[in-house]
Request: fold
Amino acid sequence: MPHPDSAAAPARTPLTRDRILEAAMGLADRSGIEALTIRRLATELDVKPMTLYHHVDGKEAVLDGMIDLVFTEIALPDQDLPWRDAVRGRCLSARTVLVRHPWSVPLMESRRSPGPATLRHHEAMLAHFLDAGMSLQLTAHAYAVIDSYVYGFAIQEANVPVQGAAGQEDVTREIAAQFSPGEYPHLVRFAAEHVMRPGYRFGDSFEYGLDLLLDGLDAAAQAEAGTSAPGRAAAP
Reply:
């Protein structure tokens, strides 16, 4: 019988699929997706590699689960809002999540076994376009163009050398010093008069570009329906 004053050993947290996926996401966030291996993941969880296979079928299954978790973090478009406002809100959420998990962007559309969160997300997006009266063709264009913009911007934003930090001006000056003002006057002007100004953030362009896309899709939808919004030319 143990002595009453002896400390009990801490209970070991049970290994589950969710715990494995959360650890995998943390590893990818810190070290990149290239660092994710079954062996490294097992080390993170302080278990033997073979133990993981009782909960996941292998690395591809882990990747499928990780992407589905990413989709759970992205807000679904609000069913009570008009399609433009709902899709805009979803895109703002997606941009925030993808910058937080930049490794996920190349994998978002490549998985062959989408999980329930992924499927719910696509279903909700398609419903907003189709219920607004868009044709299948315009819906396909809308979803492809919007996600290409969101995914691409997230990749760029995640890789900007300095983003809104105190060292931004120094980094920009260091880069600008590598090209001649006489040969690249517009680059020099852009860096000096815009990028190095106080408060500059690359990410500030996201909503501007998103609104341009949504305005264009709105015009195309109205042209397809045979109407034109006031002040907007009908799309061809």
Notes: Residues 228-236 have pLDDT under 50 and may be disordered. The CA atoms of residues 60 and 195 lie 41 Å apart. DSSP finds ten helices and no strands in the chain.
